[in-house]
Each structure stands twice: as structure tokens, then as C-alpha cells.
Amino acid sequence: YELLEQTLDEVIQDVRKIFVRLKSLRFADFVDQNQPMPITVEIFEYLKENEALMRVMFRLGGGITFQEKFIKVVEDTLKLGFLGGVKSENFMVPREYLMSYILHAHFGVIQSWLESGCKESPKEMARILSKLSLDGPLRAAGVTE
User: Fold this and answer.
1) Which residue in 109, 112, 138, 142 has its CB near the most CB atoms, within 10 A?
2) pLDDT higher than threshold 70 for residue 28
3) Residue 140 class from Cβ within 10 Å (0-12 exposed, 13-18 middle, 19+ buried)?
4) What pTM does this model have?
5) Residue scoring higher pLDDT (77 or 110)
């Protein structure tokens, strides 16, 4: 258990370092561009480089503790970076539900990618996640324009 906990903490620190290096990026900087956000590409590259470990951490080995810590790192980054400059009156839904939706949707996409053997490249996965995030699931499915 101690080795698992130490490994979990190392992964969380690695992810936190990626976000710290890129925390100056703002979500609004990428809304009109047809490219994935660099931070998303870098996270997927890290996950791919550590694919076997990540598969275990996202599914079994890390359990709820890993999920909670991973989500907390991403949540802190969103609050301080991407969503930090958005005025609360501009939100169409309560902030906490928006955060929950974004975090759990992204976590689920990452988990599915790892479980399917990381067939897509990190850049392609970052593009897919950006498309889902910017356009929403209905538009991504072709239901709305």
C-alpha cells in the first residue's frame, strides 16, 4: 500500500507540474482556434508515456483516492486559470455543476482512451477533448449545428 501511495503521489506531482508550467494559458485563447490546447496535448503525452501505470491508476490501483486527487489538480487549474477570469454572472448554470461536468467528462474520456489501448495519438485525443469541450456533446454528435 505504501508503494502504491508513493506512486500515486508522484503521478499527481507530475500532473501538477504540467499545469503549473502552463497555468498562464486562458481558455479564451483557444476558443476560436481549430487546434487542441497545448496543456491538453501535454497531459495526454504524459498519460501515453506512462500508459501501463496510468491504466492501473485510472481503473484499479489508484481507486477513488487517485481519481479524487487527479480531479482536484484539474479543478484547481480550471478555477485559477481557464475559468478564473470568467465573471460569475456569465455562467448559464451554477459554477459547481459546470466544474463537475467538465471534470468528470474529461476524466471519463481519459479513462476510456486508456482502457482502449491508447489507439489515438495524444494530439488527436487532445483535439477530441477540445472539440467536446468547446462545441459540446450534441454538436460533436451532429445533432445540432
Assistant:
1) 109
2) no
3) middle
4) 0.80
5) 110
